[in-house]
């Protein structure tokens, strides 16, 4: 260094920074090497330590030593992860930035020419690699879905037309609209036409994980929504103005506040119109005396599926909305006025706690909308995970759509008896539940149940044979009787919370020129299981693959697990997949990875702590998929986040410790172990695994060699999830909770990403065509409909999500093309 021109303090401070970085890497790197990890961090740490000490002593060799470390780091990084920009950033970016600083005259003046040359070469090599990543990176899969029209006419039950009459568009759950006004060519002209605020926001006594996942319905010339606190509203579809609103005044169920709720949400309401069935919905007139016949009485003599004569509810509420509430009620409202249908149930509602036994406040209620058929309204319920071994039953109940009387119940803990229980009887405690939306094929007379698990999720030694048979799968019940027609399990002896989380999609598939009645079940573990919805037989092959063994003492693991040949599974994690913002936290993530048990997917939970990848947020969650029956294509938004599951022996858990939250310590009262769960994060609070953490992907169901993933792209940015709220929109690919809706116009919409945008994509290529900034997190599934003005509207709920950490809000927003 030129001591006359350069102050000693900048050199010493920079040297101290390099020295500390080197010592950190050297210490951690030595520990990592002894754990069987990479030797790089030890070697690089030693070189940086020597370089920093040399610089502090203001000797000539500092730049050359640092340049050698940077050059070696760049070569090592490319060897380890190739030209993956986001993998290279934590390995090279910080050192490259320090190298650039060292080349400034303040530090380089007076240094040896050889040292400057070596460092310059190293910096140029690092920058050259950065440029090369933009050309050579192959993280995305480029392709195009050609589209193949079915050999026969479309099934109208699988297509939403001008209206959006059910949660998934129709009871088939395709999330597909026949509207085609918005296209890839004109989507850039989409503009916001109205927005409202419902007034239902998080309150001091609200659960910490309040969220509004509502997908509105558009039918009966109204737009129907629900809010987090189970309020129902009817809006004018063209203006968003409130036509009526209903507040069920949700009870805290004996608690002082809502803090015991694991979460509070409403995914949607259900619409029923008596005119949809038969002439005016009535296939027989009143008798000669003018008596009105109760639907349940008629059904009891016709195996539950005969259309009744006129009922009082049909007269009072020919069109009705069914609203599930967070205090375990089902309320019937007049769809025109919002008033209670008082002849349904007791004063317009059904108490869903009946025959359930003890219920902790928030421990049981229906987060997803019910499904309706000609004569039945059917629903299940959320049960709090990992609270105890004595939780409410997962029973599925079918009520008469007119009177509210219970017609049948199917309890997976008592699966052969569907006769309604008598007063005082209790459904099987802790039996597997269904919390996701159902689907229905009324022509086949079947309702499809995406099954959950018996809790606790990570301890299964005490499960019954029926628990083992029906959990984490798909069950088809006879609509008339509630009896099981067929069942298929997707996870054997599930210890990872891999319950079936999404609405099954009913679609007629073109298989070798023949239309096959199929059902597609998205799952957390990444498989898309495709079955014949009439028989339960495989349409796409499913393999039984070997699974890791060795559960905690007292439990066991299944030797194999089913895996569909149509899947979006990520590769198994390795040490080189660990990530971070700097070399230090990346090294710490590699140390953490080595400290945990991981043998690939289905690594059993352990005392040591096991990596669950994909984690229980899933590749797919309640947001599901959208299926285009014309193009025979699927639009998906898979997530990829690793979680850690650690079993805690009961004697190490204090009484009352733990919470109903989906992360942290969960008590599992009554089981020999509690469980500690959470995402695999670095010390900076970002995922330890490298991005992408969320994609969009397209599946061609009519591909020549069978269904195939044709395109795949990183989706979303860090715009709203950077440390210190720095609005830096890095396109790493972020998780999404909120499903897609696709249209005949060739455009798919998705709003659930961590950044606050709703986006439009070309379904054939996955190209992002349009986006609009949202005022809060859009963790909901959009929908689309045609207004009376002839325009196609797109509507999304922006309510935020407590667990996801997005901004909370109470917005409903509509978009459309400009008026002609």
From TrEMBL:
Any single GO CC term annotated in Swiss-Prot or TrEMBL for this entry: membrane
Cofactor dependency: pyrroloquinoline quinone
Residues annotated as domain Pyrrolo-quinoline quinone repeat: 164-793
Protein name listed in UniProt: Glucose dehydrogenase
TM stretches of this protein: 12-33, 39-57, 62-79, 85-104, 116-136
Gene that encodes it: gcd
Family label: Belongs to the bacterial PQQ dehydrogenase family.
A single MF term (Gene Ontology): quinoprotein glucose dehydrogenase activity
